[in-house]
From TrEMBL:
Keywords: Cytoplasm, FAD, Flavoprotein, Heme biosynthesis, Oxidoreductase. Pathway: Porphyrin-containing compound metabolism; protoheme biosynthesis. It catalyses: coproporphyrinogen III + 3 O2 = coproporphyrin III + 3 H2O2. This is Coproporphyrinogen III oxidase. Its EC number is 1.3.3.15. Involved in coproporphyrin-dependent heme b biosynthesis. Catalyzes the oxidation of coproporphyrinogen III to coproporphyrin III.
Amino acid sequence: MDGTDIRGGHVVVVGGGIAGLAAAHRLLDGGARVTLLEASERLGGKLLPGEIAGVPVDLGAESMLARRPEGVDLARAVGLGDSLQPPATASASLWTRGALRPMPKGHLMGVPGDPALLAASGVVSPAGLERIEQDRELPRTPVREDVAVGEYVAARLGREVVDRLVEPLLGGVYAGDSYRISMRAAVPQLFDAAREHRSLIEGVRAVQQRAAGHRQDGPVFMGIAGGIGRLPLAVAESVRAAGADIRLGCAVRDVRRTASGWAVSAGDLVVEADAVVVAAPADAACRLLAGVSPGAADRLASVEYASMALVTLAFRRPDLPGLPDGSGFLVPPADGRTIKASTFSSRKWAWVADADPGLFVLRTSVGRFGDDKDLERDDADLIRLSLDDLHDAVGLSAAPVAGRVTRWTGGLPQYPVGHLDRVADIRGRLDELPGLRVCGAAYDGVGIPACIASARRAADDILGDLGRDRRRVDRDPTLARGTGGQGREWTA
């Protein structure tokens, strides 16, 4: 910002997930007026608070990376600082090769820095361990401008490391295929190590040594007592108190330029504004941008999404004797199971355990990119298949007292090779249209802090555009032109 007073500049934010809400929060702090339009009847997107058997739980994302400041900072800014909680335990396992095995230490997204630690875990077979040793002698593997994580790691260390370690860890973030996912976008530290070192193992060790010299105190991940789903609702309350007009059930059908700025149409509602932030999934953003930036829309049309389902189950604690320690386990796709992970929520989060000490809550996840046939099953089948896998993994034979399935169709954008170039192209095209920006999980990362950072970048760009325009607006305070006032006003 150059110090220009932009107070009164009006911005429409399309989308009420955490990215859209964070953008609204930043814009209001910068002096803009904000109207936020959300197509559905609720706010929060993939952050969804809920309950099972009277216990509050997250039915979407359950934690955020605390080593990035954006999520924690936003939670504190909207009054949730005292509710931030680290996991009570974070010792996950891998269910692979017929047994529950400890997660190897000293790895970077599954890539070992010390093969001896990997050998002690039993995750990789003796033949797989022998293949890893070839990394020390192999000639440099070309990286080029980008490469798939699985492709590069398999070339250096063998497919077993990818299939047993990298796949379940990356799958937990993207529900994707590591043989397609961009290393440069998804694991930039690994990408840098691959470019700087001939041996991948030596490169990972170098990354870990540098990290040890800059070690951050505090937990790696953070949750919120009562559920991370409280975060978007608290942000919404904050921005509404600051004057934002939040409307639900407003599916935006059109964004167009006008002589004085922009017009956003949702049903019979037409909102005129100085700028627009599109914080919607790629398919919706593609549709909205088609008329003003066909090139950006074309690139957005290529973004693919993975679907998944979360199965949340509650059991009586006395019915679960001998449940193994830890926060849960991951499942490599190579093992052919239905579930890809299970989280022992009552172990991981103290607030879940404290809500009802007599119950034990856990959840499983089902579905990966390109493998969503199980998602066609009904809820009862998904619960049964989850119970079958839990029986085989940890010996669980009890019947749950409650179960619910939450489906996230098209929930996670995929970051294939070339993703960062695609994003740069989209933004480059929008740079030609001052007052129009995009943000969200489809661009800079799927985690909560990354989405908030993406929103702040878009908001700061808009504030800069408004400042450079040196315009003050004096429009009708209803912010709407046309017939009717479609959309339900949001209330806490």
